[in-house]
Amino acid sequence: MTAQTGLKLVERDASGVDTAFRADVLAGLAEPQKAIPARWFYDDAGSALFEDITQLAEYYPTRAETEILSTRSAEIAGLIGPGRAVVEFGSGSSVKTPLLLSAIQPSAYVPLDIAGDFLRASAAVLAKKFPGLPVCPVEADFMRLVELPADVAEFPKLGFFPGSTIGNMIARTATDLLRSMRATLGDGALLLIGIDLVKDEDVLLAAYDDAAGVTARFNLNLATRINRELEGDIPVAKLRHEARWNDVFARIEMHLVASEDIAFAVSGTRFAMRAGESIHTENSQKFTKRSSQVLLAAGGWEPRARWTDAAKQFSLVLAEAARPRSAP
Ligand code: AVJ
User: Fold this and answer.
1) What string of DSSP letters covers 94-153?
2) 208 lines ligand 1 (CB under 6 A)
């Protein structure tokens, strides 16, 4: 693997279009089951809507994970020990990062994010909260191997990947990500990762289809974004939000379902959808204790400790970088 260095992360063509966004949308809409990667939810409006989702009564993951971090911080800190450089995958704008940093006496904080402006703004807020802690933001696509700043080369690393964002990836992609985290963080590294749990189907469906319709707006905002940024004319009013439980894969799926036959263009390419046909916009994988351990092992991480909230809705796992081995 070659590490990325100072590359331009968002490529725009002459008319200012994000070329990766356009490529993903055009390819995804041409598939038999239309599908668009969930990462494109997060424009400014989508990021604000996600913040609103985390406040919803039905959306338990944020509250549950925050509960674990605040009630178990002494135990977590005892296992992690002082002096690690904390490398956060996706820069923390949440309350979770300060909870971790104030518990463990880190040597440095390295937030990694693809959104440079957002990254620098939230890094500045954190640096202010923790005077004396070196904060070294790195603009990078964390799905790939990242070269960490030379300032933190000598420190042992703690990767931090909260929110169960790992659940947005299918198993193959999640394994690739865990392996590249292992390569980025090096021997002796620890990883503290949030993993959402399989639970009652009604609870899961409500968390992804709330009564106030915030998640519906979050999902539909993707179509609005396509129309605005990619010269689209998708009839957004003829799409409706749907959350489905896929029991074979143990995941919540979000879809945008056409309520009647529709036709539209995106960047000059024509598409059609029959009534009832959908665009698959997100997977949110749910795990059991065992399935999370299998995934971590496949990605080169050995679970060392695991905590859940009092209602056992969500888990936080501390894992250690596995040493290469060829025998059982
Ligand atoms: C940010 C990926 C953890 O899957 O629960 C929330 C995103 N989508 N509601 C999740 C999301 C719909 C969220 N993650």
Assistant:
1) SSHHHHHHHHH--SEEEEEES-HHHHHHHHHHHHHHSTTS-B--EE--TTS-B---GGGT
2) yes
